[in-house]
Amino acid sequence: MAYYAIDVLHVLQVSYNFPDTQQGVKAAFESSWQELDPMTRRVGQLLSLFAPTVIPWEWVQSATELLKWSKADIKRAKKLLYKHNLIQQVQDTEDYYQIEPSIRKFLQAKLAASEHANNLKRAFAQVIVPIAHQIPDAPTRKAIEMLKDAIPHLEEVALNLPNAVSAEDLLWIFDRIGRFYKSQGLYAQAEPWFVQCVSVAKATMGEEHPDVATSLNNLAGFYYSQGRYREAEPLYVEALELKQDLLGDNHPDVAASLNNLAALYDAQGRYSEAQPLYVKALEMRKRLLGDNHPDVATSLNNLALLYYSQGRYSEAQPLYEQALELRKRLLGDNHPDVATSLSNLALLYYCQGDYNKAQPLLEQALELSERVLGVNHPNTVIFSENLAMFRAKMSSKTSWLRQILQKKP
User: Which helix (DSSP H) or strand (DSSP E) does residue 229 occupy?
Assistant: First the structure.
C-alpha cells in the first residue's frame, strides 16, 4: 500500500542541539551509547519513536518481530538499556517501561542519523495503527480504560509519522482519537482531530471521495452533539450531496446522511423538513439492510422522537417500542443504544401520565449507562438529570424532565 506525505499539520521539528549546560549530560549519554552493541542501539532508536509515556514492552517485541530481530538479542538489549539507565521500569513491573525526555531526545538524534530509520518507523507504525481499529464508534468506559495508554502513541504516529502509514489508516487514527475524547465529553481535545481529519482526507483523497464525505459527516456530528447546529448544517449538507454524487441514491451511507440531516432539522424544530428525510432514510435502510439491523432501529427511534417532539404520542409509541425490542435483540441488554431507547420510551410514558411505567425505565437507563459508559459520560449525565427531575416531579409536581436527543450518525 502506498504511503502519502501529509502537509496539513504542524509536524514537531525537534532540535537536537544540547545547550551548553547540558553538554555534560549529552557526553554521559554518548559514553553509555558507545558501550552498546549495534542491535542494542537499534532497539534504543526504536524506543525513541514511542510517545514520552508508558511503553508496554509487548509492543516493542511486536515491532522487533516485524523487523525479524531475534528474541535473544532483544532480551539482551533490554537488559543493557536498563543497566545503562536509558530506560526505566514503571511501577516495579517487568512489562512497562518509560524513557526520560532528555534520553528520548538523545535517542531521536541517533535515529535521525541511522540508515535503519525508515524501517524502524514503519515497524513502529505497523504495531500501533491496528490499535486504532480497536476503538469503537462510541467507546465505553471499559474500552476507554483499555485504550488510554495507546492514545499518546497513536497521536505520535498521526502528528510526526504520517509518511509511515497509508492515507486510509491515517484518517482512521484521526477519527478514532477524536471519538476517544468525544466519548468522555472532552470536546476541546476532540475537535482538532475531527477538523484535521477533513483536511487530511481532502489532501490525500482529493475533494471528491467517499472518505471526504465521511470525515465531513463526522465533524458535523461532533458539532451537532454540542448543539452547534449552524456549524453542523453546511457540513451535513455537503456530505449528503457528495455521497449522492459518488454512491447514488441506493446506498446505506446515503441513508445515514439523510438521517443525520433530519436529526439536525429535528433538533432545530424544523419538523416539516425533518420528517420526509427520516421516512426516506427508514425506507432505504429497510430495503438495503433488511428489517433486522441496528440502523433500522436508529431510524425507528429518531422518527419516534420527531413525533414525540410534536406531541404525536400515539404515533411515537409503537416506533419506540419496536426500536427498543430490536436493539435488545440485536445488541444485547448491555449496549448504550438500549439505554437511550429505555430513556426515550420512559419520557413518552411520562408525558402520557403513565408514571408507573416511566420510573423503572428511567432507572434502568441510568444504571446501564453508568455501568457501560461511566458516570461522567454526557448520556449518563442526562439520564441522571432525567431521573432526578422525575423524582422531584413526583414529590413536588412542579419540575420538568429533559429529553435526551440522541440521533446517531
Answer: helix 229-247
3-state secondary structure of 97: strand
For the chain, the domains span 20-118, 133-206, 317-409
* DSSP code at position 402: P
Q: For 224-253, how does the pLDDT look when each residue is reduced to its tens digit (9 = 90+)?
A: 999 999 999 999 999 999 999 999 989 999
Backbone angles phi, psi at 325, to 5 degrees: -60, -45
d(CA 255, CA 106): 52
Contact 86, 45 (CB under 8 A): no
Chain-centre distance for alpha carbon 11:
22
Report pTM: 0.82
Q: Is the pLDDT of residue 68 over 80?
A: yes
Say yes or no: domain 317-409 is CATH 1.25.40.10: yes
Q: Which amino acid is at 47?
A: L
pLDDT digits over 378-397, tens only? 889 999 999 998 988 887 65
- DSSP letter string, 8-69: SSPPP----PPPGGGHHHHHHHHHHHHTS-HHHHHHHHHHTTS-SS-EEHHHHHHHHHHTT-
pLDDT band at 403 (very low <50, low <70, confident <90, very high): low
CATH architecture for segment(s) 20-118: Orthogonal Bundle (1.10)
The CA–CA distances, whole Å, from 259 to 69, 138, 214 equal 51, 18, 14
Chain segment 92-141, per-residue pLDDT in tens = 777 899 999 999 999 999 999 999 999 999 999 999 999 999 999 988 88
Q: Are 264 and 229 in contact (CB under 8 A)?
A: yes
Position 9 confidence tier, pLDDT thresholds 50, 70, 90? very low
| Rounded-to-integer distance, Cα 339 and Cα 334, Å | 8
Q: Of 264, 243, 265, 242, nearest to 253 (Cα)?
A: 243
Those residues with Cβ within 8 angstroms of residue 356's Cβ, 6 or more apart along the chain or in another chain:
none
Three-point CA angle 374, 184, 340, nearest 5°: 60
